[in-house]
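Q: A reviewer asked whether we had any structural model of the full assembly, not just the individual parts. We don't, so I'm hoping you can provide one. Inputs are below.
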Amino acid sequence: MTLEYLSQNKAFGGDQFVLSHQSETTGTEMTFSVYVPPHAQGAKLPVLWYLSGLTCTHANVTEKGEYRAACAEHGVIFVAPDTSPRGDDVPDAKDEYDFGKGAGFYVDATQQPWSKHYRMRSYIEEELPALVAANFPADMTRQGITGHSMGGHGALITALRNPDRFRSVSAFAPIVAPAKVPWGEKALSRYLGDDRDAWRAYDAVALIEDGARLDNLLVDQGTADNFLEEQLKTGLLSMACAKAGIPADIRMWEGYDHSYYFISTFLGEHLAWHAERLGK
Amino acid sequence: MTLEYLSQNKAFGGDQFVLSHQSETTGTEMTFSVYVPPHAQGAKLPVLWYLSGLTCTHANVTEKGEYRAACAEHGVIFVAPDTSPRGDDVPDAKDEYDFGKGAGFYVDATQQPWSKHYRMRSYIEEELPALVAANFPADMTRQGITGHSMGGHGALITALRNPDRFRSVSAFAPIVAPAKVPWGEKALSRYLGDDRDAWRAYDAVALIEDGARLDNLLVDQGTADNFLEEQLKTGLLSMACAKAGIPADIRMWEGYDHSYYFISTFLGEHLAWHAERLGK
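A: Here is a predicted structure for the entire assembly that you could use as a starting point for your response.
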């Protein structure tokens, strides 16, 4: 697999890369960003994955996330994938911001016409980690994962399905139970079909109900987030974790909304929290 | 003067505002951003002005500058104006990124057709400070100024012309001698006419040669900045400051370029430096 380096910018003593490659999984060109902090030659560094929300690409968090200072301080590599396949060949839902391009929901679609390209689960779980491991000074035994909104959903389900891979899991304003909210019902029914049992592998609360566990979890959620009541339903995650004995620190922040102003306020704290669990 | 609040987002315990108003100076609607950090009720806070570079609006630094953490830590209000008048009535130079809209160069134009709207000097020196003083908890006896590229030029000339207003002055990759470089020669000849004597009030090195002084100055410049040799010419500022006895800390940073990856790396340090001179 050949990586194309689209840009490289020095920041906080390290390097912010934006890269693309021809993905075998999605059958498209995929773009992602990687920040490599300053480090001793030959050192292997822990990796934090950041999965983005609806309408986003790698660029939103790369430009607005304010994570590089903390990555440099704690010596953590930061990887930000795209949220869906892209390109003229990829089917889309015109005028729908919450489905199709920019809205892959981190699933492997089983339904036509989505199943050919919309394979973000396999892309995030298999192809991209192999690419990162092969091209950056990453210690793949020390991985954490986080994300925002649809990407918070992605972080939760990816961690719940791969308990041995991630030592630390956090999320910002995640969609915690997509099978029970409009964004998720639209996406899962179209990508996976009408059989709701097939949705449970892509629903954090359902995965916990079905026995999946996490060793730790940090969630930040703003009280002024317009999507809290209808789409995010943080309370369902709190209840599921309590019932399952998952030690979850779910913090509600007065006055914060769904934007990167919220994420950037707390992403540095998440970095420190992950770094503590990933080791220096 | 009526301020319209376009957005308000909580961040780092304070509020990031984006606002617009009908400017008497430029005869246009002008947009700017203000970050107000958390503070005790009734407190008056020092103000740091940030002037942006070519092609930018208030939005670039607001989204990519990573200044809010340091503003919150040091208790500093951060104001980011636009770089030119905007609107369909405002004459522009089509297909020229370095002149017209987005390229006001912080001058009061004297030449047709620019002189009606391109009055960024008076806007930044008079109208906008009055607006900020009237609407935010700003202590206008404690102001600092900084900026990037064309905005670094703006910060330097504004401070050199108003020595009693600014207690602290810094810049990122400033255009230090616009009269001697292509960007500046194009802009100053069109805005001000061919008499180069009229340009000296808008050229930091010329202002210093003509007797203007600063009590302090911090400049950061990347060595991998594509514009360094032809447009920025940091060395001319170093020489002018040395000759004039201005205590200037001009730092060259190996491998950093002209982008917000560079600015965001050092803007927190600039905030701390300004805060020290502005008082808590």
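A: Points you may want to mention in the reply: The CA atoms of residues 75 and 193 of chain B lie 42 Å apart. The two ends of chain B are 30 Å apart (CA to CA).
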